[in-house]
Amino acid sequence: MSRRRDDERGARRHGDAPDAFWGALGVVGGSHRTALCETNGVTIYLITGDDESLVLEELGTRVHELIGDGDRSLMLDDYDAEKSTVEEIEIAVRAAVDAANTLALFTERRVVVLRHVNVPKVDALQPLVGYLASPVAATDFIFTATGAVAKSVLDAIKKAGGSTVATAVSQKPKERELWFREQLELAGLRLDPHAISAINDTLGNDTGRFPGIVDTLLSTYGTGKKLSYDDVVIFLGESGSTAPWHLTDAIDSGNTGEALKVLHRLMHAGEMHPLQVMVLLHRHFERFARLDGENVSSPADAMALLSIRSEFPARKAMQQAEKLGSDAIAQGIVLLADADVQLRGQRDWPEELVMEVLVARLSRLAGGARRNRAISRQR
Q1: How far is CA 96 from CA 60, 154, 325, in A?
Q2: 8 A C-beta contact, residue 252 and residue 285
């Protein structure tokens, strides 16, 4: 996704809209998404929600808004309070506060992210409460929470002029469909009303699946055409079928049996053509190939390289590319190329057999890479 398209989405996202519209998206805290909550020029957000994928999606959007065309490596500091011990939580919180208190050397502003401030050890968050009493004017702060946040932290954020952004989607069908429509537009996708209704009817309140569907539609169709009901419905995991990313998940885990089972469900109950499955697999490995050999040290780097807005698929691609390694990625690309020409008539095999062999080989490839890494660690 180009920077220009990202900027265009940002412009759409921050255009004027009635309060009822933003309320339909589940935003709380007395302000809608167009407003930056500022006190003395400081922007502070608390992003909440019980679905990690939606929280990460919103976090990526907010970070992009604040950094804009700035250098992420210089402006962004990212910390996570979700640790296994109190000491580790305290270290993460203190590190985030120290970063917020430190003026940026080469940029005008700094953006600090502290994830999972819903930690059960409230005392560990006291340095944060103290900081929010007098935040640094040149530092913007974003917090995320996937559970209940201590009242002391909520009060401190509110007193500092912060805004709470809830990613929870309304359970009312009409309001939820409005949310789906807006998110699709932000992704650059154009769907006819029947297609949007199909997404709403199929997913219902299971909105955590939605980012994966958006990613699949972008990978399969791009943004050049308006998608119909028939274009979209095959990716929704209908009754008796399964979601397309279950196939890539099974392949990445090296579970050949599960991968073949998912393949059959996609091609039979899901009525996906083998060439459609090929597109999904090719795009999947193409991401690994683009990441391989690049200096990618964070999900933010992977998002920039792959031109995607969501942290969740970027993080997964980065982790899997590292697990596979250059040789396995190259072998996977060769296997995909061979299967593609076989589907187009080079070998007189049934299409389903070609796909079964391909999926089994890709799965064994991932499983072999995983075993080799385990052996290397033991040596």
Answers
A1: 18, 17, 33
A2: no
pLDDT of residue 242: 64
Closest CA to 116 of 206, 56, 205: 56
Among the four given CATH numbers 3.40.50.11030, 1.10.8.420, 1.20.272.10, 2.60.40.1930, the one describing domain 237-373: 1.20.272.10
DSSP state of 105: S
Alpha-carbon gap, residue 350 to 363, rounded angstroms = 20
The model's confidence at residue 38, banded by pLDDT at 50, 70 and 90, is: very low
By C-alpha distance, which of 97, 61, 65 is closest to 79? 97
- 371 vs 134, residue with greater confidence: 134
CATH class held by domain 27-166: alpha beta
DSSP 10-58: HHHHTS---HHHHHHTT--SS--TT---EETTEEEEEEE-S-HHHHHHH
* pTM for this prediction: 0.51
Structure-block tokens of residue 257? 């049996």
Read off the pLDDT of residues 344-364 as tens digits, 9 standing for 90 and up.
887 778 899 999 999 999 999
Tell me the torsion sign for CA atoms 260, 265, 266, 272: positive
| CA–CA dist 187, 196 (Å, integer) | 14
Own/partner long-range contacts of 201-205 (Cβ < 8 Å, ≥24 apart)? 202/233, 202/236, 202/237, 202/238, 203/236, 205/169, 205/171, 205/176
pLDDT in tens, 231-275: 998 888 754 456 788 899 999 999 999 899 889 878 876 678 899
Contact 143, 79 (CB under 8 A): no
Q: How far apart are CA 130 and CA 171, in angstroms?
A: 37
Is 369 in contact with 323 (CB distance < 8 Å)? yes
